[in-house]
Amino acid sequence: MTKQLVGIAASDGIAIGKAYLLTEPNLSFDRVSITDPEGEIKRLLDSFERSKNEIQGIREHVAMAVGEEEAQVFDAHLMVLADPELFDGIKNDITTNMVNAETSLSTVANMYISMFEAMEDNPYMKERAADIKDVTERVMAHLLGVKIPSPATINQEVVIVAKDLTPSDTAQLNRQFVKGFVTDIGGRTSHSAIMARSLEIPAVVGTKEVTQLVAEGDMVIIDGLEGNIVIRPDEETIAAYKQKAADFKAQQAEWAKLKDAESFTKDGKQIEIVANIGTPKDLTGVNENGAEGIGLYRTEFLYMDSEDFPTEDEQFVAYKTVLEGINGKAVVVRTMDIGGDKELPYLQLPEEMNPFLGYRAVRISLAETEMFRTQLRALLRASVYGTLRIMFPMIATLNEFRDAKAILEEEKANLLADGIEVSDDIQVGIMIEIPAAAVLAHQFAKEVDFFSIGTNDLIQYTMAADRMNERVSYLYQPYNPSILTLLKHVIDSAHAEGKWVGMCGEMAGDQTAVPLLLGLGLDEFSMSASSVLKTRSLVAKLDSKEMEKLADKAINECATVEEVIALVEEVKAAIS
Fold first, then answer.
1. Are 13 and 245 in contact (CB under 8 A)?
2. Which of 225, 282, 310, 496 could serve as 314's disulfide partner, Cβ 3.0–4.6 Å?
3. Alpha-carbon distance 531 to 101, whole Å?
4. How does pLDDT run across 308-346, given as a tens digit for each residue?
5. Do the domains spanning 3-23+151-253 and 264-575 agree at the CATH topology level?
């Protein structure tokens, strides 16, 4: 029977396909006394072999589709399977206690996991606990005859249905086969939503119950334009959505004509529409979508994709690659933004009640100065290969900015003293994501070269609402008059000092927010590469003077977010 759901439109497009459920398998089992230990040992060996073959297949896929470095995580899993102590320990438990293989696997695996997790002062060993858990769960699934979903093994066109997608899940997605995905949880700023836009596949998130309503192989329609899901649609509905998909493809073809154009409003005001990236691999999408530069290079992925702190030379190569790959256009590089929901296994961060408000980003950089200096030296060395702009994240006070910039200047002087060339034209700015910095923007603007507004955090901190918490997600309101008032103060403060302002949060590519941001005077809009062309098309239809009136009315006459949205919809209806 056909069922319809409404979620949050996270990535544009229409996907129609059979459901692939990426859900946690049921690995429960009963302890059973046995009389044939050799038979149990054979079952165990078969399960080890099947797990090994699967992991090798996943590794090969990830190496080809994503990269050798990302694939190396699976080498640790293969090492676990090849460890004779693990296999022999399970085998001995079977013969000693005369129990089924499932029971012995669980007993021995849990012993190793507990032992490694107890090594608090050894991050490497704690990582091995996670490897053992992943691998033994796969072996257990084979013993039980339960399927473990793996995105990397998908070899036919599907749409993924999941509670949520982890970073490791998304790293394995193959756009050739994965046509879209839908999740129970998440919002437009969640990891899975951002990854969907980077991969340019349709996605709807936050449906709350899609995994409960969809069975493996069900036909599912994902409408990433409006946030609708149709489960087990009839032929008439499929035909209607195929036409909608064709219309959207035609619209994309029209947008593609703007690839090499500059970004001007209807009345001739020029702005910059640039892209956010996480790794040098993202440059392809940036260039194919005609972005005018990079407004946010999230360097923390260099740290997250490594088993130890990346060296100065490793970082230098990454930054140089990006600067050269953007053909002289400006690149805003954010220094390491670890903490909150982004952890490093080799960096022991303290346990905190609220890590999003704790020890993270520039706070870590100013405490772990050698790590910070390594990154700054790599950036300074790379600066001669393009137009580099350096941005410090999570700045709350002027002293934090001054301290960070002083370290940057020290490293620049050290490099020059060693005869290493450094660009003499590097702008240094900050992310505005903490309300304290936004309120004091008129003072910061006297000392920084630019602001880039990180709305993902600025909104959640201003509204006191965790953007990942479903119960308070209604308070994540980019168009709330209070947020718009804060943005206006930041932009006006920068302009008063002759400085420019960008925005690298998800709001910059939000088609409802763009008219408002244009009216507030935002200079640079940085977004997922897939949003660049449609934003350029929208901007070309807007008159900047009229948008100033719109923004002024939204701030001074509207009391609720609903009133602001209604205002913007009137404007967009008039130009469509």
1. yes
2. 310
3. 52
4. 889 999 999 999 999 999 999 999 999 999 876 666 667
5. no
Residue 311 phi/psi, 5-degree rounding, is: -75, 170
Catalytic sites, residue numbers: 191, 504
Q: Using CA of residue 509, residue 511, residue 513, residue 517, what is the dihedral sign?
A: positive
- Strand 263-264 relative to strand 270-277, pairing: antiparallel
The answer to whether 179 and 15 have CB atoms below 8 angstroms apart is yes
Distances (CA, A) of 423 to 77, 372, 380, 381: 44, 19, 7, 8
φ/ψ of 12, rounded to 5, equals -65, 150
- Report, in angstroms and rounded to the nearest whole number, the Rg of the chain calculated over CA atoms: 26
Distance between CA atoms of 495 and 500, rounded to whole angstroms? 6
How many other C-beta atoms can be found within 10 angstroms of the C-beta atom of residue 314?
A: 14
Query: Of the CATH numbers 3.30.200.20, 3.30.465.10, 3.40.190.10, 3.50.30.10, which one belongs to the domain with range 3-23+151-253?
Result: 3.50.30.10
The helix or strand, by DSSP H or E, that contains position 246, with its residue range, turns out to be helix 235-256
Q: What are phi and psi of 217, to 5 degrees?
A: 90, -10
d(CA 42, CA 142): 12
Q: What is the 3-state secondary structure (H, E, C) of 291-332?
A: CCCEEEEECHHHHHCCCCCCCHHHHHHHHHHHHHHCCCCEEE
Which carries the bigger pLDDT value, residue 384 or residue 192? 384
CATH topology of domain 264-575: TIM Barrel (3.20.20)
* Residues 6+ away with beta carbon under 8 Å from 573: none
| Neighbour count for residue 30 (Cβ, 10 Å) | 7
CA dist., res. 323 & res. 281, Å (int): 13
Query: 57 near 153, Cβ under 8 Å?
Result: yes
Domain residue extents for the chain? 3-23+151-253, 37-144, 264-575
State the Cα angle at 505 between 538 and 379, rounded to 5°. Answer: 115
Average pLDDT over residues 291-308: 87
How far apart are the C-alpha atoms of 412 and 379, rounded to whole Å? 10
The Cα–Cα gap between 267 and 39 comes to 79
Sheet of 14-22: strand order equals: 3-6, 228-231, 219-223, 14-22, 158-162, 178-183, 203-205, 8-11
Token code pair at residue 575:
């130009």
Element (H, E) at 222: strand 219-223
- Residue-wise pLDDT for 191-222, tens only, equals 677 778 777 889 999 899 999 999 999 999 99
If DSSP codes are grouped into helix, strand and coil, which group holds residue 269? coil
Nearest partner of 571 among 517, 489, 491, 512, judged by Cα: 512
From CA 515, how far away is CA 519, in angstroms rounded? 6
Which pLDDT tens digit goes with each residue over 51-104? 998 888 877 776 766 566 656 767 888 888 988 889 999 999 999 999 999 999
